[in-house]
Every structure is written in C-alpha cells, then in structure tokens.
Amino acid sequence: MGGPSADDSPGARLGVRWKTAWALGVASVALVSAWSCGGSSPATVALAQACSINSDCDSPLICAFERCHNACTQSRDCPAGERCVSAGADSVCELPIDDVCGAASLCPSGLVCAGQQCRNACSTAEPCTVGQQSCISGACFDLSEVSDAGAADAGITPYGPGGDAAADVSADGSSVPPWFPNADAGPLGFVPSNLAPPAASVDAGGDGGDAGGLLASGPDAFISQTCTNCLPSPPTTITLNDGSFADLYVLESLVIEQTAALRLSGPRPIVLLVLTTVDIQGFLLVNGVGETPGPGGFASGANPGPGAGSSGAAYPNSLGGGASFCGSGGAGGAAAPPAAPGGATYGNAALTPLVGGSAGAGQGYGGSAGGGAIQIVAGTSITVRAYGLIDASGGGGQDNTWGGGGSGGAILLEAPAVVVDGNVVANGGGGSGDGIAAPNGGDGTDDDQPASGGGAGGNGSAGASVNGADGADLVDAGGSLGAGGGGAGRIRINTATGQATVTGILSPSLGSSPAGGAACATEGTLGE
After folding, report:
1. What pLDDT was estimated at residue 364?
2. Proportion of the chain in helix, strand, coil states, percent, rounded to 5
3. What is the pLDDT of residue 176?
C-alpha cells in the first residue's frame, strides 16, 4: 500500500477544518486590536465567530471549540436543532458547523461521532453531564431523540446513518429503518456474535468462564509504535457460544496510529470489545507468516485445521495441497497421478463460530500456517482509515517442506457504523516449489493481489478469486513441481443498517464466492 502524503494525516485534515473556520472569522478577529490610548476595551465578536477565550466573545457568549457559543444546561435551552454539549467547565449549544460528522469530516476535539452527529463521549465510569441526556453506546443522546414507544424510560435511543429516528436511505435508494440500541444488551446496545448473553456485558476481570457479568470500562489504548500483544491490559480467556475459547480484551477506545503496527498472537481467536470507538490508522495484524499461524489459526502437525490440504503416502508423486476455508486450496502438482487435493471448505458467512484459517500440507512434514481469527466489537464505530490495514491472511508454503499455502483467516467487525477506507484482507498464501531451485510461496498479501507461488507453486487467493491456484507440473519440460495455493478466509461486517461504508479494499471481495458456495465477504445487521 502506498505511503501517505505529508498533509494527509487525520490531524492535518482536522487542522484544515479549523483553518477554514479561522478564515471565516478573520474579519471579526481583526477587530480585536491593541488597547487604545484612551483605555477602551478590545472589540468582541458575535455568535459562531472565531475566538480563543470567553472575553473575545460578545457577552454572554462562551468561547468553545474556538468559536463563540450560547451557554446552556440542556438542549431545550438551545435554538431548534441544536444540542447542548459539555465543553469543559461550561456547556454550550452546538453550532451547525460543530454538529455533522462522518467518514470525511471530524468532530471538534472532545467530541465523538455517533450516528453522524458530534456528541460528548461517555461510559459507565463517566456518565453524561448535560441534563436530560443518556449514555448509549459510548455517546450522549438527548432523551428527546428517543422513540415515543416508551424507549426513553428504558434508555433506548434510535439512530441510523442520518442521525435521527426517521428512516434513512441506503446507497441503492431503498429505505433503511432506524436502529434502536437495546438497553437490555448492556452499554453496547447490541449483542455481539459468538458471546453468550448478555453478550454486551462482559466482565473485564473475567473468570475463564462465559462472557457474563457487567462490562467494566477498560483502558483507552493508543498504539504509537510497532509492537506485539502490547494492549494496555492482558486478555481474559472466555468461552464462546459453541464451547470454544477466545482471548478477550476489553477497552474503552482503541487508536492505532498511522506509523504503528499492532500484532496480536496466541493459540486462541482474539475478541476486541471496545466500549466506544476503534480508529485504525496503521496496521492490525493477525496474519499467518510462513509456518507460524495467526491467533486461532492452525499450523501443520497434529491439528492442521478442518480445511488442511492433503499430502502423504496416498499422494507419493505430488506436492502438498493448499488449505481451504471459504475458498478452496489448490491441488499440488504431481509427476504422476493422483495429485494431492486442497482441503475441504468449512465455516459460515456469519463467522459463528469464530475460527481461524487452516494449514497447507507439506509432503510428509511441515507446510504452512493459516491466518488468525479476530472479532472487533465497538459500541460506537469502527474506522479503518485510508492507510489502515486489518490483515488475517495465510502463510506461504515453505520450500523445505514442499508445502501448500495456508488459507486466509477470519475478520468479524461489529459496530453501529463501520467505515473501511483502507484494506481489510484474509487472503491465501502461495504454494512453494519443490525445494530444489524455487523459493518459498509468498505470505498472503495485504491488498487484493494474489501472493505469488514459489517457482511452480500456485498463487494464493485474492480479491474476487477466492480459490488458491493449483501447483504446476513442469517436470516434463525439465522443470519442477509446485504445491497448491491457499484459499480465501472470511470477512463479515455487521452494522446497525446492514451496510458499511466501504471505499477501500475487502479481499476476498464483498459478495465473491467459490463456485456453488456462499460469499466469502458479507454484511449483516447487529444482533439484538
């Protein structure tokens, strides 16, 4: 993926917004001149004009978010359509320029984007301070925004992409009903997949058992460097709905800076449960590398996974088959039949249960490893920015084992709003050559281009091509054999409306599928 320009960071984009704001008020600011010889006070500015301290504004206006605002104690004090928000020691009526947010615009510092409107952040430990507001999914909502059907008493607030209780319009022009967070599901407002009810109420302390208890407010996580398992608190091992285990991290918020890479590892799938927002500007890595699987992925050996490629005595003249998950692994090249086939496909589009990718087969020993499995749950939003990456691709086959490529793993994203401007990938690894004059197969790529097979090895899956390629038989031409490439993993995105905002790359591609099979990248709605 290409590198960012010097002025394309989120901070730079925010700076442009406020520079524009200053430019709009420059004429008024110019009136704030030096004191005259007669000792007169400097000129002040009107509502919505630029300011730095309260005395810059016409009395009784208050300077907040670098503009003059009306003071308030609750939203009924504000003009119609404006919300009362906390701004440090004061509360002010939010201006229209402060209010609307989305994938291309940011909120003023101190506010978060929820339902495409800028609001105060909140949690069970830090509730809303403005009167007549309730904390839902990590953001403050006026009770007047709640539906008429008694939802106000239950603390339920509807909002969809348009930020109000009216039906929204999807990308294809059809009506999308508003989303109503479910207060019974806990602070998240919805029930995450795979977690035993009450799923949104996970105990941060944990007892190694189920996901019951109350959701404790975990720490904020800001990753500013490349590191492994460096989240600010250790994981808790929990039991998922199907009886399998996962490593759970509970966080208040998560930011991975653009220059940073967070790698998560371990024997079990990863669940990141984030009370408010996830902002991935850099890399989040759970991919397989060679014969080392991602968390919850499978490696060659005693348990290569349900989609492991074939090899061994039954295929003495063939290199190993590639691993399968959603897409099929390629067959190994054979000097004489039969050729070792790729593994069997498994799993389902919803990624319930949460399971990782399988290992490609080596001829007699070794092979490659599958991509890991990660579920990211956020109470407000998940954003993968333009240079951001979530990678659960499979490892490349190793030439010393004549191994097939590992399959891609699993990525499950669940939040009221999900924006993907960067790359989210679960590609298969490339198959190796025969170890005589060929390199290893490439690890699954971080975009929608296939990993290269080593020598005569088959390429891994990528993009709309969800199956790994077969290894070649070049013996008759004086060449060598190749192992099969790894098949695609699975991607699932669940949102309030069933539609994420995707301008970047999903690989496997949204809706792509093997012949006769279900799609490998799908969308759905949040559980209730």
Report:
1. 62
2. 10, 25, 65
3. 44
Structure tokens at 156: 């339920």
Q: Phi and psi (nearest 5°) for 11?
A: -65, -40
∠ Cα 65 70 71 (to 5°): 95
Give the count of beta carbons closer than 10 Å to the beta carbon of residue 245: 14
Q: How far apart are CA 498 and CA 164, in angstroms?
A: 17
- Confirm if 387 and 256 have CB atoms less than 8 A apart: no
| Tokens (6 digits) for 105 | 């615009």
Q: Name all contacts of 241-245 with Cβ < 8 Å and 24+ positions apart.
A: 241/194, 241/195, 241/196, 241/352, 241/353, 242/194, 242/352, 242/353, 244/269, 244/353, 244/354, 244/355
- SS3 at position 361: strand
Q: How far is 249 from 482, CA to CA, in rounded Å? A: 41
Strand partners, 320: none
- The parts of the chain modelled with pLDDT lower than 70 are 1-42, 100, 102-105, 115-116, 124, 137, 144-185, 196-217, 364-366, 435-438, 475-479, 528
